[in-house]
Amino acid sequence: MDFYHGSLQCWYSKVLILKNLHKVKIFLKQKLITLVCWKRNDERKRFTHPAPWTNQWKYKNHRENTKARAGSAREPVVGAETQKNMIAFYHKKQEEAKKLMSVDEDEYLNSAWADPKNLKRQLNGTGDVRWRI
């Protein structure tokens, strides 16, 4: 078991690397930090690194400020009216894309201009003639 007295900074206690130690206690000037490990750790891994043995180690930092701080308020990038227009434009484009996707790709083959014999019928003048028996 090793004891460290003296001037370890608070931020350093978070990234303390354990090298082949089972139990470590670190005493700082004012507060106590207790680190308890039951597995040997790789020297490149830190306590901030997600470990597969999370149920086997315990980390307490009494000097760390645990209060959540709210972020500073900032102005929106676009105005409310501009955002409404952008959303309307987006939905319009989505509806057009849905309509285009719903159209069958082979539908043009049944049209008159896609018929290969249509030109011959038009030149002979027999385009709209229907035979009845």
- The radius of gyration computed from the alpha-carbon positions, rounded to a whole number of angstroms, is 37 Å
Low-confidence stretches: 1-38
Portion of residues within helices: 25-40%
Estimated structural class: alpha+beta
Q: Give the overall silhouette.
A: rod-shaped
Counting DSSP E segments of at least 2 residues, the number of strands comes to: 4
Helix tally equals 3
Instruction: Profile the largest sheet.
Output: 4 strands, mixed
Spatial separation of the terminal alpha carbons: 109 Å
Strand content: 5-15%
Explain how this protein is built:
Belongs to the CFAP298 family. This protein has a domain at 2-61. Mean pLDDT is 65; it is low at 1-38. The protein starts with a strand and ends in a 9-residue tail after the last helix. With 133 residues, the protein is α+β, with helices and mostly antiparallel strands. The chain contains 3 helices and 4 strands; from the N terminus they run βαβββαα. The protein has helices spanning 10-14, 80-102, 118-124; strands at 2-4, 23-27, 32-37, 57-61. Strand 1 (2-4), helix 1 (10-14) and strand 2 (23-27) form a beta-alpha-beta unit. The chain is rod-shaped, with a radius of gyration of 37 Å. A 4-stranded mixed β-sheet has the order 1-2-3-4, with no helix packed on it.
